[in-house]
């Protein structure tokens, strides 16, 4: 028998259709192959749904909602979990990480994760108290916004146990809806708030009171934990400002912040900065989730039009996507929009992306006042707020903007009788996923020209592709962090991360194994499922392994004006990246690679993909 | 003695993939890296990059150019 450390080897499985609750064992070898979190999600989804993947509706009862921890959850400083399933945005697998005490609570309840199958007829919430698991009526909770819901849950279960939940956006199957945690935290990428809504699951409350699984080498673990805490605590700038400082620096210094739907990526708006937010709006600093020595979060408060709004930082992505991308540079109003998105359970990135897209279409006359029902203008808080709410409740034009930027573009083109390309040229997304707020044109930020085009998570800025493959620049690194389940902001150099993993698990993962086998295995499986796609959108790598058209336009303003990426360098980069991963010229993992990675059962379905592409 | 800094990702595109310097004195590696980044026009502080030995292991505090022949430099924060 193989002794497991750092994991329980046990998942809580809840079938909402039948009401059956059970525990499923997962063999330690599976963890050794896929680590946990995102890797385990890819494995479970392939095993359960892979052979009929194209027919599985992400918003149908057949899809699974996965809430997974990793072997480093609870041990490594900082706390995260990964939400996954078949994504209603990409139709592939997205590992969507979120800070939440639920991660610790799941492990303390004796599980490595929760698997939700089927769909309930009536609204429910899941209550886990160690071994006791109940599917409870959520009729009174359905329709509540985030803050109201948290209050109601406290009364319902007593105390303040950690929870994951959805707002009205998830209930209304909005594809940009997030799974929320503790007011402001969102598992936004992937659209899993809509998956949770499709299952009529309002919340997951976990009160775990037991110990964590044992670690393999306690002395080494404690030594490394202190070492990492020292390193992380010394990141003084990040501790001071969190990611909020990016609101100024990513725009002004590196010219890679979306401004007016990415028409520009530079600004010099002094009033739009972390300094102004700190002085006028921070009411709590620092703030952290369980076990985090970095404590990069803040709490902001603003009053706009007589209404008070509270949110996080706002962190950089919210500032960019619900601020500069919408032409809004007044920080009190950015805080208000962010707070509203949190409360409605919307992903601020994906929703800001589709809002910016809509305003540009209005600006260009593609959308009219008759289409929208009111005027839209860059920086106009009133109309932006209204549009955000229309998306969450699928009202008017919000009903198809709620499908996310890619699908909204196709619908607008259809309604207007325009060629799809005419509308898609303004859609800053990759494979159904709006691009995160880090541009590639200036080359002064971290994403490389192939960052999004080659990512197995589309436009996800936390999971970018890059060269060389055997380094932290490649997508193997975020796949590893999301599988061990570690916050990227508390991660340190790879050698220490691997020592930490091995100390906890008793494994002996080497750098070579990470970059040659473990990481490529996770990426290959995600890539195959992404290429299968369906049932609505499917991706042809010859067309869709590409940047949004906007990224080929030269930057119009700022110190890097004129800078752009070229199609030639992207093609060269993709070819090199695929080759280094053992994929063919179209980015399909070769049979030899799949067999080397132990993915023998994937070979047949990949032959089908290759036949469709005319390369096999 | 010769000391080399290898840059990865977009840093390699702007600062160059490798920079080798002939140094007659022992210099603090982190301070040197920070100075090189500044002279390349990178708006990055030393806290925002990861400086490691060639095998990816951490650079011990106080390492000088006399203690190491080569270091790798990557952006630390890849998200946010």
The level-1 CATH class of the largest domain in chain A? Mainly Alpha
CATH 2nd-level architecture of the largest domain in chain A = Orthogonal Bundle
Series of secondary-structure elements of chain B, N-terminal to C-terminal: EHEHEE
Would you report the number of β strands of chain A? 17
Low-confidence stretches of chain B: none
Report the total helices of chain B: 2
How many DSSP H or I helices of chain A? 25
Helix content of chain A: 25-40%
Strand content of chain A: 5-15%
Tally of discrete structural domains of chain B: 1
Helix content of chain B: 10-25%
The helix-and-strand class of chain A reads: alpha+beta
- Could you tell me the strand content of chain B as a percent range? 25-35%
Indicate the radius of gyration of chain A in whole angstroms.
22 Å
Let me know the number of strands of chain B. 4
Morphology call of chain B: globular
CATH superfamily of chain B: Beta-grasp domain
Low-confidence stretches of chain A: none
Strand order of the largest sheet of chain A: 2-1-6-3-4-5
Features:
heterodimer, A: 616 residues, alpha+beta, Aldehyde Ferredoxin Oxidoreductase,  A, domain 1, Aldehyde Ferredoxin Oxidoreductase Protein, subunit A, domain 2, Aldehyde Ferredoxin Oxidoreductase Protein, subunit A, domain 3, 39% helix, globular, B: 80 residues, Ubiquitin-like (UB roll), four-stranded mixed beta sheet, 2 helices, 21% helix
Provide an overview of this structure.
The complex is a heterodimer of chains A (616) and B (80). By secondary structure, chain A is α+β, with helices and mostly antiparallel strands. Chain A folds into three domains: 10-207, Aldehyde Ferredoxin Oxidoreductase,  A, domain 1 (4-Layer Sandwich), CATH 3.60.9.10; 235-434, Aldehyde Ferredoxin Oxidoreductase Protein, subunit A, domain 2, CATH 1.10.569.10; 476-517 and 527-613, Aldehyde Ferredoxin Oxidoreductase Protein, subunit A, domain 3 (Orthogonal Bundle). Chain A is built from 25 helices and 17 strands. In chain A, β10 (179-181) and β11 form a beta hairpin. In chain A, α2 (37-49) packs across α19 and α2 packs across α21. Chain B has 80 residues and is α+β, with helices and mostly antiparallel strands. Chain B has one domain: Ubiquitin-like (UB roll) (Roll), CATH 3.10.20.30. Chain A binds chain B through residues 231, 234-238, 243, 246, 249, 253-254, 315-317, 436, 438, 443-448, 461-462, 464, 466-468, 471-473, 477-478, 488-489, 492-496, 511, and chain B through 8-10, 13-14, 42-43, 45, 47-48, 50, 52, 55-58, 74-75, 77-80.
């Amino acid at each position: 028998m193989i002794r497991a450390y750092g994991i329980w080897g046990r998942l809580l499985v809840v079938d909402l259709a039948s009401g059956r609750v059970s525990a499923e064992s997962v063999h330690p070898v599976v963890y050794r192959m896929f680590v946990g979190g995102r890797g385990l999600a890819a494995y479970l989804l392939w095993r359960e749904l892979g052979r009929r993947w194209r027919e599985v509706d992400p918003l149908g009862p057949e899809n699974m909602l996965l809430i997974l921890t990793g072997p480093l959850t609870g041990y490594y400083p900082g706390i995260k979990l990964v939400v996954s399933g078949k994504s209603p945005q990409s139709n592939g697998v997205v590992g969507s990480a979120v800070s939440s005490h639920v991660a610790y609570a799941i492990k303390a309840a004796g599980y490595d994760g929760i698997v939700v199958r089927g769909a309930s007829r009536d609204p429910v919430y899941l209550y886990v108290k160690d071994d006791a698991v109940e599917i409870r009526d959520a009729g009174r909770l359905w329709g509540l916004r985030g803050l109201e819901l948290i209050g109601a849950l406290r009364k319902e279960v007593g105390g303040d146990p950690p929870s994951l939940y959805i707002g009205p956006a998830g209930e209304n199957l909005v594809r940009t809806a997030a799974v929320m945690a503790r007011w402001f935290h969102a598992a936004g990428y992937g659209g899993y708030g809509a998956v949770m809504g499709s299952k009529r699951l309002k919340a997951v409350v976990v009160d775990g009171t037991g110990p964590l699984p044992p670690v393999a080498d306690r002395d080494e673990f404690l030594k490394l934990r202190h070492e990492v805490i020292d390193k992380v605590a010394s990141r003084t700038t990040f501790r001071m400002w969190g990611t909020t400082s990016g609101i100024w620096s990513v725009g002004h210094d590196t010219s890679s912040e979306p401004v007016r739907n990415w028409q520009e990526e530079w600004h010099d708006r002094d009033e739009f900065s972390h300094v102004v937010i700190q002085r006028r709006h921070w009411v709590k600093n620092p703030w952290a989730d369980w076990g985090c020595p970095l404590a990069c979060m803040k709490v902001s408060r603003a009053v706009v039009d007589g209404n008070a709004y509270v949110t996080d930082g706002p962190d950089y992505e919210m500032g960019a996507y619900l601020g500069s991308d919408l032409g809004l540079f007044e920080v009190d109003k950015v805080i208000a929009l962010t707070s509203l998105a949190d409360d409605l359970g919307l992903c601020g990135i994906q929703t800001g992306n589709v809002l910016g897209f809509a305003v540009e279409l209005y600006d260009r006359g593609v959308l009219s006042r008759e289409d929208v029902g009111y005027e839209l203008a860059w920086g106009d808080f009133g109309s932006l707020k209204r549009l955000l709410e229309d998306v969450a409740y699928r009202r008017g034009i919000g009903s198809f903007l709620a499908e996310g930027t890619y699908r909204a573009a196709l619908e607008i083109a259809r309604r207007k009788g325009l060629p799809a390309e005419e509308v898609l040229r303004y859609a800053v997304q990759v494979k159904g996923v709006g691009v995160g707020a880090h541009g590639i044109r200036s080359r002064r930020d971290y994403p490389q020209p192939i960052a999004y085009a080659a990512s197995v998570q589309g436009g996800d800025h936390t999971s970018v592709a890059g060269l060389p493959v055997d380094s932290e620049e490649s997508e193997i690194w975020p796949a590893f962090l999301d599988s061990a389940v570690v916050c990227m902001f508390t991660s340190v150099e790879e050698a220490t991360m691997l020592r930490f993993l091995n100390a906890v698990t008793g494994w002996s993962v080497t750098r070579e194994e990470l970059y040659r086998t473990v990481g490529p295995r996770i990426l290959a499986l995600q890539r195959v499922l992404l290429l299968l796609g369906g049932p609505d959108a499917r991706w042809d790598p010859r067309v869709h392994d590409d940047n949004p058209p906007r990224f080929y336009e030269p930057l119009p303003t700022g110190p890097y004006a004129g800078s752009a990426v070229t199609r030639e360098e992207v093609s060269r980069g993709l070819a090199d990246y695929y080759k280094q991963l053992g994929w063919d010229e179209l980015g399909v993992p070769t049979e030899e690679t799949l067999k080397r990675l132990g993915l023998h059962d994937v070979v047949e379905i990949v032959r089908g993909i290759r036949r469709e592409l005319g390369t096999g | 003695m010769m000391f080399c800094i290898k840059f990865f990702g977009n840093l390699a595109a702007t600062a160059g993939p490798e920079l080798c310097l002939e140094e007659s004195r022992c210099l603090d590696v982190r301070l040197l890296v920070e100075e090189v980044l500044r002279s390349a026009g990178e708006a990055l502080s030393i806290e925002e990059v990861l400086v490691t030995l060639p095998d990816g292991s951490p650079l011990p505090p106080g390492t000088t150019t006399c203690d190491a022949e080569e270091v790798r430099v990557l952006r630390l924060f890849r998200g946010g």
